Queue: 2 jobs
Job 1
Amino acid sequence: MILVTGSTGFLGAHLLYELICKGLRVKALYRKGSDIDFVRKTFSRYCTDFTKKFEPIQWIEGDIMDLYSLQEALEGIDKVYHTAGKVSYNATDKDVLLRVNQLGTQNLVNACLDAKVKKLCHVSSVSALGRSEQGETITELHLWKTSRINSYYAISKYGAEREVWRGVAEGLDAVIVNPSVIIGPGNWKSGSAKMFSTIYKWMPFYTPGTNGYVDVRDVAAIMVKLMESDIKNERFIVSSEDIPYRQLIWMIAQNLERGKPFIRLPKILAEIGWRLEYLKRIVGIDPTFTREIVRSAFNKFYYDNQKAVKALDFEYTPIEESIKNTARIFLDDRKG
Ligand SMILES: NC(=O)c1ccc[n+]([C@@H]2O[C@H](COP(=O)([O-])OP(=O)(O)OC[C@H]3O[C@@H](n4cnc5c(N)ncnc54)[C@H](OP(=O)(O)O)[C@@H]3O)[C@@H](O)[C@H]2O)c1
């Protein structure tokens, strides 16, 4: 039997769908207050018999910060997919990022070792691979360097990966995936899916950076393929294409039938912008445009995706197709 953590999240819900479609038995970890309906909604986007597909999931309440709840959840489990995590580029979330991503993963790794779980799939991030210095293409062999410009999210994901490698040294079999920015229908108010609602409302600006992108269904499919293979104790970049922000934003705008953002945002304005946004904290509102986001939007990141392609004979969904599919779902959701 399989346990999925973070099952009520964007990636977790798509992973549950992939596992259920393969006829596998799944326990899904949720927290008090988790939106289980989001999983049902995600299923409904891909099939008409979604209620039938949703029924076999065994739901178990727990928290990765609570070791005892993990020990209970791991009863009868031989494979674990760890997608639970905090995604934030807001420096004010430093403590929660380090707690949930690093300590939460430490708890899960320890519980998996105790329960003699056969294999763990840990969802890391390309940010845990460290930054390129001269715009070189990053591979799985890239070494992390401590630097003041690393975001707290990246530091927390790097710390989480180190916990998994420690577990491997103590006898756990694991695979690690390092996805780039994941594209797909998620919560339109947060994460990468928020790009669609922002561009739909009004977005005249684009920035000169480049980043890697991958379809959420491809991430789920690669995770399952890795877990069903003999591959163990390796990490894999999961990224379909590196695309300049301008091209990405234009593709989204076009598919949402919105005007193309036409003003290249000057760096100086972005620098002023995140500082002004920061002031929102005074009235208790989390800034949406942060220093970390500005750094990323003006940098160029390139990722080598060939390791997973060759090991799994995998063909990625082109990002244009992912955007088309996500935009269609976004517009359908708006119609209600
Ligand atoms: N989205 C991306 O572009 C991207 C790219 C690379 C890597 N990743 C990684 O992929 C993973 C999933 O990301 P996502 O975009 O799916 O995030 P998400 O939509 O925010 O989902 C996060 C999930 O983690 C759960 N969670 C958070 N804290 C928890 C805790 N203490 N105990 C148990 N569950 C907890 C959440 O539960 P609730 O529903 O109760 O909040 C939710 O189910 C993360 O590890 C992230 O770092 C994401």
Note: The chain has a mean pLDDT of 94.
Job 2
Amino acid sequence: MYDLRPRRSWEDDDAVMFRDSLRRFLAAEAVPRDAQWRENKSVDRDFWLAAGALGFLCPSLPQAYGGSGTSFAFEAVIAEELGFVGITSVGHGVHSPIAAHYLLRYGTPAQCLQWLPRMASGELLGALAMTEPGGGSDLQAIRTSARLEDGHYVINGAKTFITNGHNADLIVLAVKTDPAQGAKGVSMLVVETKDLPGFRRGRNLNKIGMHGSDTAELFFDEVRVPAGNLLGEEGQGFVQMMESLPQERIYIALTGQSMMERAVEITAEYVRERHAFKQSLMDFQNTRFQLAECLTMARVTRAFVDQCVDQHIRGELSAADASMAKYWTTDRQCEVMDKCLQLHGGSGYMDEYLIARMYADSRIQRIYGGTNEIMKELIARSLR
Ligand SMILES: Cc1cc2nc3c(=O)[nH]c(=O)nc-3n(C[C@H](O)[C@H](O)[C@H](O)COP(=O)(O)OP(=O)(O)OC[C@H]3O[C@@H](n4cnc5c(N)ncnc54)[C@H](O)[C@@H]3O)c2cc1C
């Protein structure tokens, strides 16, 4: 039988051990609970706390800030393992490699100590809020404002489609500190949501997939946060977002690529067992060709994603390559899900089948983290 998941080029022995224990943890604590999370549109906090206690949150933070001091490889293992078991409910990708890493990268040591240990333990759940009702692709045009007044930033505006937004205790928030400016007017603020006057969450939004992942609207009405919650300096927010998005994009690519591998695995199992016209579905040439195409897409994509992870660990991943990985992988992911669902026949449309859930969960991958059209803009920019 073909080895669908050979060892990664960037995976050392510690990462292999981490993967093994994470796999056992997810099998025991996530897979059996995912149906309930999807029903509740939310992951229970005790899962986050249990993951934190075992070192499965924010492993790449320094030990001084509650992490394990590993490279991005451990975050990559988490992306892959969650993707392979089809758990999209747990917004780890937003919590750790995104929100926590904004603090790590742009926060002062005091800011890091204030928030990161509690993010690593699962006590504080993180979100990143950039997108607004008026638009998400054009981040220079955001309208949520923050004006400095008596040692505080006073925030007004609204965000939407925010992953972890319904439960987040800490939001890395993109604001305009100078509304007269475009990109140069954007800054990033850290907002702790507990008992925060003027802060309101809207509905936990209904989606076509990723039902266990909470996605919320957030409203800010004269919300005051200490001036010391600014990350870096005023006006650096847009650059900070552009510097941070490649890590988000490679995480999305890893999720998509591992979901493809799982789709191939479960579909091969299904067509071996299922019979029509007195033969197994696998005996039809069409089935074998479809699966061969899916396996090839998963395998070829794996090679490029691995190359990008290697580059990222060395600090050499370019914005163009991260965009290629995100766009290419997620487009292939949706193709693979569609073919694999088709091979399941009507069962593939039933929610109790993993392929149905992975099909619905995959579609957003081409949209968030920057749409695939925006990825092509970024890639083309590297040729100018
Ligand atoms: C489930 C989910 C989770 C999300 N999580 C988060 C989150 O945690 N934090 C966050 O900040 N955001 C989040 N988002 C928002 C997501 O990042 C945005 O939806 C995305 O960036 C697109 O923005 P938009 O929806 O405003 O679409 P628009 O920007 O209005 O784009 C609409 C269409 O126009 C195309 N388009 C726009 N500009 C161009 C261009 N220059 N050239 C060609 N085509 C273009 C787009 O590709 C798209 O097809 C999430 C969204 C969803 C649905």
Note: The domain at 127-234 is CATH 2.40.110.10 (Butyryl-CoA Dehydrogenase, subunit A; domain 2).
